[in-house]
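Re: weekly structure request thread

Next one in the queue (347 aa):
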Amino acid sequence: MTGEIYLPLHHGKAPYWLLTRMKKLASPLVKLIVLEYGEKEFLERISNPIFFQSMSNVLGFDWNSSGVTTVLTGVLKSVLNSDEFSIRVAGGKGSNALRTPEEIKKYSEEIGAKGEKIVQFSRFAAKADNAALIDGYSIYHHAVFFTPKYFTVVQQGMNEKDRMARRYHWDVYSTTPELENVHEGIITERREKEVVNLVSDLSREARKVCVDIVRDGRFKKDYRKLISIVKWRGGIGVPRRIDWKVVEKAYNLQPERFEDILMIKGFGRETIRALALIADVIYNTEYDKIDPAKYCFAVGGKDGVPFPVKKDIYDEVIEFMRDAVKQAELGDYDRKKMLERLSRVWM
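Done, posted below.
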C-alpha cells in the first residue's frame, strides 16, 4: 500500500498543552491495540502511512503538516519507552537521529531484543532512502520502532530547495531485508518526474551490473566513457564529484551484492547515481526511473482525482480506529472528541 498527502515544511514546536494531551490520549489507545492485536500488528499499523496519519489526526494534530512525523514519533516514543510495553522507539529528528544506534542498544537490553541486528537494519534503511532511492530528498528524521522480534523504520526527508518533505514507511521485518520493494508506503505532496529508484524490483538487473562494474575495477574507465557520451548526446546530468578512494576501497572488498556496496562508508548517492547511469547508458541496463510514491489524498479523492477513493482501505482504517477509540480507557469527553476528529478527517 502506498500513499501520499500534502506535507509542507512547518517550523516551530507543538505547544506543551497539546503534547501533554496527545500523550494522555495515545497511551490507552496504544495499549488497547497491543492487547487486542499484538505487538507485531501495532508495528504493521505504524508502517502503514494512512494509519500513521489518521492516528495523528485522532490525537489532535494538524492533518497536513510535515510535523506529524516528528510530533507523533515523539509522543509514541514517550508512551512506549516505559515498563508498560515491550515496544521501543529509538531516534527522531536531527541530533536525536544521530543517537539512534546507542538508543537501540540501550532499549534492546530492556526488552531482550538483538540490538546489533536492529542497528544494522537502522543504518541500512537510512542509507537506502538517502542513496539508493535518489529522489531529491535528504533524510533528517529517522526513527526505529521495534519489539524483541520485529522492527520497522519511519523516516522523513527534506527537499530544502522546494521546502517540501516526504515520509518513508518501511515494511515490518525480523532481519535486514534485501534491497527490493522495502517500503510499505511513501507519503509526499509531489510525485517527482524522474528519480533513480534502485530499490525497485525493476532495477534488479541494474543493481547486478553496478556490482559487476565495481568488482571488475572498470568504474573509472566507464565513467570517462559516460562523460564523452553525454557530451555528444547531451541532456543527462552526470555527477562530477566521485570519491575514487572509496571506489578503490569497494573494489578491494570485492562486494558480492549491491547491498554490500551501499553500506560502504563514503559510498554516497552521487557515486551510486554515476553507477546507475553507466549501467543504463553504456550497458543498456535500465534502472527504474519512476517515483515509488503514489499521489493521493490520504486514500484517494472523492472526485476521482488523482484517482478514486480506495474504499477497502478507507473503511478498514476508519473502523479500526473507531473501535479502538471506543474501547480505550478514556473519559466520555476525550472519547467523543477523538471520534469527532476521526469523522472530520474522512469527510
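The chain has 14 helices and seven strands. Confidence is low (pLDDT under 50) at residues 1-10, 295-309.
Next request, please.
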